[in-house]
TrEMBL record, chains A, B:
It comes from the Bacteria. Belongs to the ROK (NagC/XylR) family. It holds the Pfam family ROK. This is ROK family transcriptional regulator. InterPro entries: ATPase_NBD, ROK, ROK_cs, WH-like_DNA-bd_sf, WH_DNA-bd_sf. PANTHER family: BIFUNCTIONAL UDP-N-ACETYLGLUCOSAMINE 2-EPIMERASE_N-ACETYLMANNOSAMINE KINASE, ROK (REPRESSOR, ORF, KINASE) FAMILY.
Length: 377, 377
DNA sequence: GCGATAAGTAAGTGCGGTGAACTAACTAAT
DNA sequence: ATTAGTTAGTTCACCGCACTTACTTATCGC
């Protein structure tokens, strides 16, 4: 067997590893299998994981006791030997609270089950709340959602605008006037649950990675809304970046002779691609809307081409108003990327719009919890 | 303690974890400590790693027996209590063979010790060798270098041009006429040693990551030679990309009205930035060389800006002919990146040239072995 | 019915860590 | 010189986890 370069695995060891960690890891391994490929017998799980049937039985027993996994009876098809007992993830044994704070006028959230299905929604109006008042609004939204489920709650995931560090502190979010606001800590202290906070584009890419039809290569999700932001899953891990600001491409300059942007720069990507701006563009009298959208798509392609080549991405998913993104814009983006990169970079690439709609962020926030608590995604 | 989003850690569990793995992991943890911060006592190692003194003593004893680590006596400074016995990595207990196949006319290699010091060099001329003959040339180079050390050899690391997959198979390297050439397997079979092969820009970024003065944030190394390529260390891991082609940015179009490129496209980055091309540019009669270099730098900045914003990089290192890269070109690149990205992306960023010179690739190839065999970098 | 085959369980083993208690070697104060 | 206190490193008993071995259970094909 030839040694091979580590993939996804960090180059350096991270910390000490207890037996307890190994057990949790193996639990995750089994859960992941059930999560992705559905019910299986203990023997199936043993074969898939490489663990022995004994160990698998032990772990499964533990998870059945917790209610996370349930026995489902034998499969219809009948073969030689003792018929297996299928076990499967009990999707509604626990619920997750997912919050989406990315919209300007409201904060929305949902109760989500372990299969990523949205079971209930709730929202609060922001009404200009800022700073501490905005934090309290989030607390109330989360508490309201908690009251809407009678199942044990695995945790709370939050997709927040702005730059968020790995401890769940919002470093900077102008719209809500947050800076160095320890949102995860505040929620955890108030609600006594595990809390995970990430940038909304980052939760979106997690949602797409887990519940979209994406493969295992590099994935980029570009969110087009009031602003423009992106999230990346590379080598099986969410990319944070040096200061947690990975994906902040809304203010990359695409046209030095373009419009003045609120950020004081000129011709930022947002000045052509933000949703309100796109709507104005296509509604302008005497404008060939498809051509205008294609023009925006071309500019987007120019920004994405270097990224595609650098990262050798597998998929780019556009998330936002489909009526604007899907069509000439997407086509022009795709075409421009291919025109501007080598076949080796672009042949393995698919560019498409998201099928998850507006739920990507809340569902992705739930994935944050799933990954953090169960090691599943 | 608040849960936090995993960094560098993959979202999903990868495979089963044996106790043996835990022990190797802990060994790496100690080696890493000694590697980075130099000699320490067993008690120091215990404090730094979180392992108990008992475990550390056990592991250190094992490594001392193997010769990897040696006792160095007590430190000069005298404090209360029993004086500690310092232990340190025995840099010359094992050697590593590093190969650099990226130059067009020759293949070069070196014997490197565990501290990354080049102890001996050797090279062979390619003389147009291709395909199988080129493979044999690599075998001979490696064998020659093996004969130059009397220490046990930890492994062989290779920086190859072209696209290399994680198993060390060269998917495509036009210059050497390799396609799907299992280089790592061939070397391993012939020399009975662990072999690691990666793209030369990828080994370069590893070299810079480990032996350059770079921090722990995202690092990009841009190699400017006959061609242009890049490598990335993100979140503590080497980035491979979907098909192993991450970093292949030499043929990103920077100027649709530019020169025709060998790749049949027009205005690729290589048509302005490749070293031979740069030399011609500055030597052209009647040309303002600094201005011309600045112009190239600006174009490079335009390609890098989206990448910087997307990845929130910490450092960009240019590796290649310093007389061309350092100065107007670098300055213009830096300036353009800052003009075209938000402060949040660019303030944490440093753009500089490499101090490791032409050895980056061989030393980086050695890092490939260090990381693979000892879990150290 | 009976052997073959597969699923799942019970008991015992070994490995790799831990904590507690120990020895060794030194400094500092009396 | 004696005593107390501190730090390094080791010995030993124990524990958690996954493994192997050996079994029971349950079905199929004959």
């Amino acid at each position: 067997m030839t040694p091979h370069t580590p993939v996804g695995r960090p180059l350096r060891p991270q910390g000490k590893l207890l037996q307890e960690d190994a057990r949790r890891h193996h639990r995750s391994l089994l859960l992941q299998q059930l999560f992705r490929d559905g019910p299986a017998s203990r023997a199936d799980l043993a074969r898939a994981s490489g663990l022995t049937r004994v160990t698998v039985s032990d772990l499964v027993g533990e998870m059945v006791a917790e209610g996370l996994v349930t026995e489902l009876g034998a499969p219809e098809v009948t073969r030689v030997g003792k018929p297996p007992m299928l076990v499967g993830l009990a999707a509604d044994s626990h619920h997750i609270i997912g919050l989406d704070l990315s919209e300007t006028d409201r904060m929305s959230g949902a109760v989500v089950n372990l299969a990523g299905t949205v079971l209930a929604r709730h929202e609060v109006h922001v009404d200009g709340a800022e700073g501490e008042r905005a934090v309290e609004l989030v607390l109330r939204l989360a508490a309201d959602l908690l009251a809407m489920t009678d199942r044990p709650v695995l945790g709370i995931g939050v997709g927040s605008p702005g730059v968020v560090d790995t401890s769940g502190t919002v470093i900077d979010a102008p719209n809500l006037a947050w800076s160095d606001t320890p949102l995860a800590a505040r929620l955890a202290a108030a609600l006594h649950l595990p809390v995970f906070v990430a940038n909304d584009a980052n939760t979106a890419v997690l949602g797409e990675h887990t519940f979209g039809e994406s493969g295992d290569g590099g994935l980029m999700v570009l969110r087009v809304g009031t602003g423009v932001g992106a999230g990346f899953v590379l080598g099986g891990s969410l990319l944070h970046g040096h200061l947690g600001a990975a994906g902040e491409i809304g203010h990359v300059v695409v046209d030095p002779e373009g419009e003045r942007c609120a950020c004081s720069r000129t011709g930022c990507l947002e000045t052509v691609l933000a949703a309100p701006r796109l709507r104005r563009t296509v509604a302008a009298p005497g404008v060939d809307a498809p051509a205008a959208l294609a023009d925006v798509g071309r500019r987007l392609g120019e920004v994405l081409a270097p990224i595609v080549a650098a990262l050798n991405l597998h998929e780019i998913v556009l998330s936002g108003p489909a009526e604007l993104l899907d069509g000439p814009l997407l086509d022009a983006t795709d075409r421009t990327i291919r025109e501007r990169t080598m076949p080796i970079s672009s042949t393995g690439l698919a560019v498409r719009t998201s099928k998850l709609g507006e739920d990507v962020v809340v569902v992705g926030a739930a994935v944050l919890v799933l990954a953090g608590e169960l090691g599943v995604s």
